[in-house]
Amino acid sequence: MTTAVELVQDAPLTIGGRTFQSRLMVGTGKYRDNDTMVRAIEASGAEIVTVAVRRVNLDRTKQEGILYHLDPKKYFLLANTAGCFTAEDAVRYARLAREAGFNEFVKLEVIGDQETLLPDVQGLLEAARTLVREGFKVLAYTNEDLVIALRLEDAGCAAVMPLASPIGSGLGLLNPFSVRTIKRRLQVPVIVDAGVGTASDACVTLEQGVDGILMNTALAAARDPVAMAHAMRLAVEAGRAAFLAGRMPRREVALPSSPAEGMLD
Amino acid sequence: MTQTIDVVVNGERRPVARDATLLELLQSLELDPRAVVVEHNRRIVRRPALGDVRVVEGDAIELVHFVGGG
Q1: Which residue, of A29, A262, B38, B54, is most buried by count of CB atoms within 10 Å of its CB?
Q2: Does A97 have pLDDT greater than 60?
């Protein structure tokens, strides 16, 4: 059988000088248990896996850091600055992550609003500039605003990550036009991050031509995270293939698929 | 002179031996130095230097690692 992968001519995804085959990136939070997480990540085919930096729990005798469950030789661990509400905090977390981790990449989040978890783009730009100066490869989680995306690229970010919809909302891609515009105007990779709910959301997102997608809750909160991870893998491949194939133009009127000629009297 | 001093580890006051190094602090907490990153009064102390830095009364120490996140 010919696989879709053989039929689609696609370049690998390169971010900050590193090359990846999978356009699907996944988080490691909120799974009901570590075994489910490991199997879901495996099923997703993701190479880039995000982690968070937090205090070690001193009350437990056995420490259960994520690295006890995920092989850092098998996955590219991308630390985030989730939970940071100021540029200063985000820079602090990024530095700790670099020390804890295996690479100079960071998924930079500076959150501006507790309820929506929407980004504070001013703090984000400030933190991005500082971290780029310190040699970090910054993947900046931002909203779907073109001008901010351009500023983040100017600041030297390795990738820009506009949201599909708020973190953990599962509302899907709310603004395909804006995401498409960002992709069209930026040179650095555009990775949509957050808000995907199910496979069709991922497919539609990749159909916009973006370079990749990152999700966590859509897998972790699915009834069967491993099966959903498989579905997401297929959806991302399908969406990317459809984008490369080039969709037909939209028409407001019908156009018959069968010949108009040769009809009986 | 007492044998212990109080430092703040991950936001909680804890007694440690006077003149203890950060490495000794980790050992007393049964933490593998390879599995945590140590921030001492807002400055990251790299693993090879953990045995050289001594804590003093009131120091703020953060011990962090990677956990699940999106």
Answers
A1: B38
A2: yes
CB nearest to B39's CB, from A63, A80, A96: A96
Q: Which residue has the tokens 């370079």?
A: A211
Going from the C-alpha of B54 to that of each of A87, A188, B61, the distances in angstroms are 30, 45, 12
Closest residue in B to A49 (Cα) is B70
Residue contact A58–B10, C-beta within 8 A: yes
Over residues A23-59, the pLDDT tens digits come to 999 999 999 999 999 999 999 999 999 999 999 988 8
Residue A61: pLDDT over 90: no
pTM above 0.80, yes or no: yes
Are A186 and A149 in contact by the 8 Å Cβ rule? The answer is yes
- Does domain A11-55+66-163+174-191 fall under CATH 3.40.190.10? My reply is no
What's the structural domain count of chain B? 1
Q: What are phi and psi of A62, to 5 degrees?
A: -100, 120
Q: How many A/B residue pairs have CB atoms within 8 Å?
A: 98
Interface of A with B in 230-249 (CB under 8 A): none
Which among A82, A95, A168 is the nearest to B44, CB-wise? Answer: A95
In a domain, B69, yes or no: no
Contact B35 A77 (CB under 8 A): no
Report which of A135, A134, A128, A130 is spatially closest to residue A107, judged by C-alpha positions.
A128
Secondary structure E strands in A18-146 = 18-20, 24-26, 48-55, 76-80, 105-108, 137-142
